[in-house]
Amino acid sequence: MKNKFDRISAIFKSKAKASLNSKVILDSVTRLNPAYLAKFNTVMFTVEIGFFLVLLIGFIPNISNEFVNQNQIFYFETATILILTVWFATFSESLSEAQARARVDSLRSLEKEVIAHKIVNGNGTLVDVTSTKLKPGDEVRVNAGEIIPRDGLVNVGKAFVDESMMTGESNPVYKEKGDHVIGGTRVASDIIVVEITAEAGRSFLDEMIGLIRNATRPRTQNEIALTILLAGLSLIFIIVIGTLLYLAYYLGYKVDIATLIALLVALMPTTIGALLPAIGVAGITRLGRDNIVAKSGKGIESAGDCDVLILDKTGTITEGSRSAVDFIPLQKYTEADVGKAAFAASIHDNSHEGKSIVDLAEEKKFIPPLVERILTSKAIEFSAETKYSGIQFVPLKDIHLTKEQEEQLEEIESFDGHTGHKGDNDKPSIYSSGDFEDMLLNLSKKGSEITILKGAVEAMLIRAHNQVNEDEIKWKSQEISKKGETPLVVSINQEVIGLVALKDNLKENIRDNIGEIRSTGIHTIMITGDTQLTAQVIAKEANVDEVMAEAKPTDKLQRVVEEQSKGHIIGMVGDGTNDAPGLAKADVGLAMNSGTAAAKEAANMVDLDSDPSNILKVVKLGKQLLMTRGAITTFSIANDAAKYFALLPAMFMTENPKMQILNVMHLHSPQTAILSTLIFNAIIIPGLIPLSLRGVKFKAESPQKTFIRNMLIYGIGGALLPFVGIKAIDMILALFFG
Amino acid sequence: MLDYLGIAYKLVTLVDTITQFAVIILGALGFSLPFGLYIARMISFELRPLEKPLAKVERGFFKLIGIDADKQMTWKQYFLAVFTTSVISILFVILVLSFQNYLPSSQHVNGLSIDLAFHTATSFITNTDLQHYVGENQLSILSQMIALTFAMFIAPAIGIATAFAFIRGFIRKNFGLGNFYVDFVRVIITLLLPVAFISSLLLMITGVPQTLNSSVTINTIEGNNQTISMGPVASLESIKELGENGGGFFGANSAHPFENPTGLSNTYEMFLMIVIPLSFPIAYAKLLGKGRGISILAIILIGFGGLLVFGIYTHPASSLIETRFGSFSSTLFNMISIASNTGAINASLAGMTPNAVISFLVSMFVQALPGGAGTGMVYMLVYVLLTLFVVGLMVGKTPEFMGMKISPKDVKIAMFIFLVHPALILIPTAIAFTTGNAQVIIGEKVTPLGYTQTFYEFTSAAANNGSDYFGASANTPFWNWSTGIIVFLGRYIPIGLMLVIAGSFSSKDRKEVIEPIKTKGLTFVSIVLVVTFLLTALAFFPFLVIGPFSM
Predict the structure, then answer these.
(1) One domain for residues B383 and B241
(2) Do both B124 and B253 map to the same domain?
(3) Which residues of A touch B549 (CB under 8 A)?
(4) Least CB–CB distance from B451: residue in A225, A236, A251
(5) Is residue A731 a contact partner of residue A673, using CB atoms and an 8 Å limit?
(6) What is the DSSP string of B330-389?
(7) In this predicted model, what pLDDT tens digit does every residue of A615-638 receive, in sequence order?
(8) Do B517 and A248 touch (CB under 8 A)?
(9) In a shared domain, residues B33 and B169
(10) Any domain includes B330
(11) Does A136 touch chain B (CB under 8 A)?
(12) What backbone torsions phi and psi does residue A574 show, to the nearest 5 degrees?
């Protein structure tokens, strides 16, 4: 039964494929329309005119006695090859567009839509709709953990909103009635009702569709320049052929119009002329394969030209989630003390950071005492204001204490340790004997409230007042920074025990990826809010050229403008609303799909996977695209030398035996020479379709090396290949012509 | 056995020619160094040696013609100035030539017909110097002096000024293209005049006459009276070669013993012809990077050397051996003259081998090996732009030159410059045949030689070269008007377009990053050479095949 089903689905699939193929063929045939070609592909239009002329001569051979002197079949053969040449061109165009359209369809599913709980009738009834259906003025309820569907204002409630994906600020922001919230951000706690204020953005996939149709696609600068070059060359060849007709005639050669048309078509850069549209579309499709939506062709092209990349540290270079790697005790304590305290402080922390602290402590077997109390303790949630989190509990009275612990407790009695306010901090700390376990037990015995916290150095120093050795903490935290890690201070009540080193891991392969990009001469700048010290260490690890540390969100735009004024082409990634101006200004702006509508609107590309390091892929692809155009152009022009050697002897050899010297390929006869040249000229187009769709391979090397390699392959190779190809085809034709 | 002798002869003369060539090239290179550095200073308005007295003289001139020397021109203003100056000069020359019989020291010559006057005027002002007349018979001493020698200073000065403006476009953003009138006056007064003056004296030492007498009558040994034409030859001769003009005082040009009396004068004239064209790469090196300048120089020398070797490789037919300077030395002179767009020849083209003729034609197609004064350098840079664009994309970046992107507009203009040349050569050649005007000169039966001569005439006109097969036999209205118009278009369309490119680049952002394709070094030199020759061959190969190749 299952087998049968499989077979049926296979049939359906192959049918779908066949229908796609037949669609491509049908489409490519409709594009043979001269009006279409005249508008979008002048080179092929010229070839088609040549086809009509030769066909006409084929039907009415006595149109001229002077310039028509081959047998009739030859004209039909020539005409067939000419129209095939044009069809190969339109086929490559149709094929690339079909592939691109298929890609767009599959991307549709990835285009981000959020389910929003819309409040209807104002009476609190909720209806789930997709975010794109929301209109300004609608009210939606957003629960904790959900994404705010679009930009708006808080109408009811207050909540912490995680805006890290927008602003880079990792701490949730407190929002209450009247505050502005950004679409795409996540509510971290509580529930709010948001009134939508922004219009729905147009789907950027629609913009991509406009880019893949040859008829609607705006040409990029390079394409325009190339088209001009090709048109110029074609015009030169038209002049050459036109005047050659007369001059050869006066010199007494029997010139045949079909032969001249063959020469013209062979000389004109038909290969690049045919494949130019397909190359551009294929670039967009290949981006789509990486789930990146291009909104303008210019963006992709600029990506190749990009010489400065501005990369966010968090998310692009590093994973963006920090993990604990080390516990560093203050003088009087041990690593175990810090580990246990940090464990305790993180027990309720569900963030990646918190979990990693627990994991590390467990791994090192630093399990705090009174685990059951800690587990049931009250959580102190992290807030943007306090910048710390932890636990608080009142220990049970019935703890069994050892003799020593009792003694210690006696000493403690004389102090009031836990309230920790001024007045008692001149004296040395009661806990100075060290050992977190003892401290905890002592405090428990006393029955006082225990607070174990972890938090940012600055915030914790303020909280601890002068009860700690500030210099030691600062010095140790600096040591942590030097390694590219971020310090967290751990304290129990007012006493700082030590620090936890958090490390933001580099993304997999990021070093190699950046290395590849840099080797092509691109300057990479890492931008981060971290301190200079931390930033530099990470920059070194990630292999970037330059860091901008302690940067504010607005610094990005400033840097973009600054670099552009020096003539550089800038690529940047962004997702937040405050990135939008920078994205709009940058030559290559890649917005994250998880980002705000404003950012996606401003950027010229959107990454549906929301992986900022994809900018590197974009750059590579842009380079590939330009390389492919250049390679096939060079190939096309280099081809011409051989064609002269094939066709000139064919045209003049009968009357002028001296021309035999030029017949280096020793072609069978003038007729086979002409046909084999034209056939070579035609089949090279489908032969290069795979290359134009796939693109010339990108290699991480200096531009000069790339240049020399491509020059050897496409320049020298392009000059030699037609000699071999034409000769081979001629040998086959010789069999038929006898 | 005879064959071996032939080969040995060929080898000896080849070595001889190469030695002679090496001496001239090394001499010219030696002199082009100070000249180039001097030109660089003129381009960037730096202090020149003797700046104070020079500036004084110049300022006097500026005041005289009422120029604001500090005013910088846009490309449009610069071109307008070039164009106006040229048109006024052409009109002046036409007037002098047409009415020379009314002017003093007319020696009973008639005024030139309007078509010949037009042809001669455009031809000389555009630095072409195609001559459809015989100087010693048809021109007065005054015409030779105030019309032609005058034009010979104007023409190169315009070309050099254009190159100044063009190079300025690349130096730095918003540097400006300079002021045409200032460049023009400075080039004449502080470059061409002093060198031409000294050169005239040197040529006079070798025996070139300089006199206001139009002829001298002597009693020959046979007892007959012979009238020998002469005149102010040396002053014309020096600027003829120095300014890459090429229009001879006598119809026979540098083959005439009074224009080129000895082997020494022959060598010195060759030197004069290439010293300014070779100075430009040096100036370029000074202004835009040593490596870049040397690479351009290498392209010129290798390209020229290749053409020369190709040209002298085949042994000429015995009946055509030139005896005065020897066939190889003559080919060398003609090669240097034609490649530098001078067009003065010391032996008739009819005596040249097909290979030599192909070399001549190719150097006129390229116009940049080294090409005419100033314009040769600009053509070379246009080829560099085109080359960088054609192959540059293969690096994966929009092609750049000097850290500036090559925009579609630049490609369009560069392509136009490249396109104008074949159009101006091929279309008129076809017209000359279809209207039968070519057959009037070369005969009803069109042979490869006859076709080559016709083709050569238009090539020389479009390239502003001036060497030709026809000479005074082409003094018909068709040839005068057609080649007169072509020299004009072949000069001012490219100059205008070159200035557009300069204007476009002068406003571009420059950035200091590694060039995607280095514009110096071996790779660059070979790529530019290959692409330049390939593009040229694509446009002209069939015409060489049916012409000189089949002769």
Answers:
(1) no
(2) yes
(3) 658
(4) A251
(5) no
(6) HHHHHHHHHHTT----SS-GGGS-HHHHHHHHHHHHH--SS-STTHHHHHHHHHHHHHHH
(7) 888 998 999 999 999 999 999 999
(8) no
(9) yes
(10) no
(11) no
(12) -160, 160
Pairing state between β A115-120 and A125-130? antiparallel
Residues of A in contact with B519 (CB under 8 A): none
Give yes or no for A224 touching B (CB within 8 A). Answer: yes
- Single-letter amino acid, residue B369: L
Of B274, B290, B306, the position where a domain reaches its end is B290
Nearest to B518 among A248, A698, A704 (CB): A704
In the stretch 565-584 of chain A, residues with CB closer than 8 A to chain B read 565-568
Q: What pLDDT score was predicted for residue A76?
A: 93
**Paired tokens of B501:** 């490119």
Q: How does pLDDT run across A626-675, given as a tens digit for each residue?
A: 999 999 999 999 999 999 999 999 989 888 888 888 999 999 998 999 99
Residues B247, B385: one domain?
Answer: no
List, in order, residues 6 or more apart from B389 with CB less than 8 Å away: A225, A229, B399, B406, B410, B411, B414
Residues B279 and B377 in one domain: no
The three-state secondary structure class of A590 is strand
Residues of chain A with pLDDT under 70: 1-20, 109-113, 122, 164-171, 200-204, 214-215, 384, 395-434, 465-468, 577, 738
In the numeric block, the tokens 């794109």 are attached to A132
Q: For residue B305, is it within any domain?
A: no
Look up the ipTM and state it. Answer: 0.93
Q: How many CB pairs under 8 A join A and B?
A: 188
A545 among known catalytic residues: no
Whether B22 and B124 share a structural domain: yes
Kindly report the pTM of this predicted structure: 0.83
Chain B residues 339-398 within an 8 A CB cutoff of chain A = 389-398
Question: Considering its fold, how many domains does chain B have in total?
Answer: 2
Question: Token pair of B390, please?
Answer: 């054609």
DSSP B120-171: HHHHHHTT----SS-HHHH--HHIIIIIIIHHHHHHHHHHHHHHHHHHHHHH
Query: For residue B328, is it within any domain?
Result: no
B331 inside domain: no
> What is the crossing angle of helices A670-694 and A614-652, to 10°?
180
Query: Domain of B35?
Result: 2-218+226-290
Q: Which domains does chain A have, with CATH numbers?
A: 31-106+207-293+620-737 (no CATH), 115-201 (2.70.150.10), 297-317+507-603 (3.40.50.1000), 332-505 (3.40.1110.10)
Instruction: Pick the residue from chain B with its C-alpha nearest to A638.
Output: B534
Q: Are both B403 and B540 inside the same structural domain?
A: yes
Residues 6+ apart with CB under 8 A from B486: B424, B428, B458, B461, B462
**DSSP-assigned letters across all residues of A502-549:** EEEEEPTTHHHHHHHHHHTT-EEEEE-SS-HHHHHHHHHHHT-SEEE-
Q: Coil, strand or helix: which one is A354? A: helix
Which residue from A131, A182, A179 is spatially nearest to A580, judged by alpha carbons?
Answer: A182
B392, B526: one domain = yes
Count of alpha carbons within 13 angstroms of residue A309, beta-carbon side: 33
Q: Do A247 and B550 touch (CB under 8 A)?
A: no
User: Residue ranges of chain B with pLDDT lower than 70?
Assistant: 1-3, 13, 315-323, 513
Choosing from B290, B322, B346, the residue where a domain stops is: B290
Q: At residue A221, what is the residue type?
A: Q
| Cβ distance of A627 and B393 shorter than 8 Å | yes
**What pairs with residue B252 in β-bridges?**
none
Confidence at residue A201, expressed as pLDDT on a 0 to 100 scale: 60
Q: Are strands A570-574 and A308-312 parallel, antiparallel or unpaired?
A: parallel
Which contiguous run of DSSP H or E holds residue A453?
A: strand A450-455
Residue among A138, A151, A312, A611 flagged as catalytic: A312
Distance from CA of B82 to the nearest CA of A (A): 27
